[in-house]
Amino acid sequence: MFAVTVDQGASAMTGTTKIQPLCDRDQSPMSEMILEDRLIEPFPVYRCQMSDCTRAYTTSLGYFNVEGSGILLDKFGKQTCPDCEASMYLAAYNPETEDEIWRCARCGQEGLAA
Fold first, then answer.
1. Which residues contact 71 (CB under 8 A, 6 or more apart)?
2. Tell me: the pLDDT tens digits for 45-76?
3. How many CB atoms neighbour CB 82 within 10 A?
4. Cβ atoms within 10 A of the Cβ of 54, count?
5. In the chain, helix, strand, coil percent, each to 5?
6. 22, 14, 39, 36: which is closest to 79 by C-alpha?
């Protein structure tokens, strides 16, 4: 079973640059936490704060699910930056038009998806 702890310091994933990814499933803000399990080293992730959502994000893996005792990657969870090939995150969502703005945590490149 995974446990999470909230990291109150600077972002461990992006250095000094704080990002605010939105969940790619329900567009709610994600919070930076440390994912811990007895089988792996603890590592920083952004987790969706909706109680029934299992989505998480890291700059290296993109979006993925944390369920039960495992991390489940999916082919739809990774938007790759066209400039530096890092994983992009959902930075903004317009519910009226369903437009999504994706941003690269590494270089800041933005892209629009509808």
1. 56, 61, 64, 65
2. 999 999 899 999 998 889 999 887 678 887 77
3. 11
4. 16
5. 0, 50, 50
6. 22
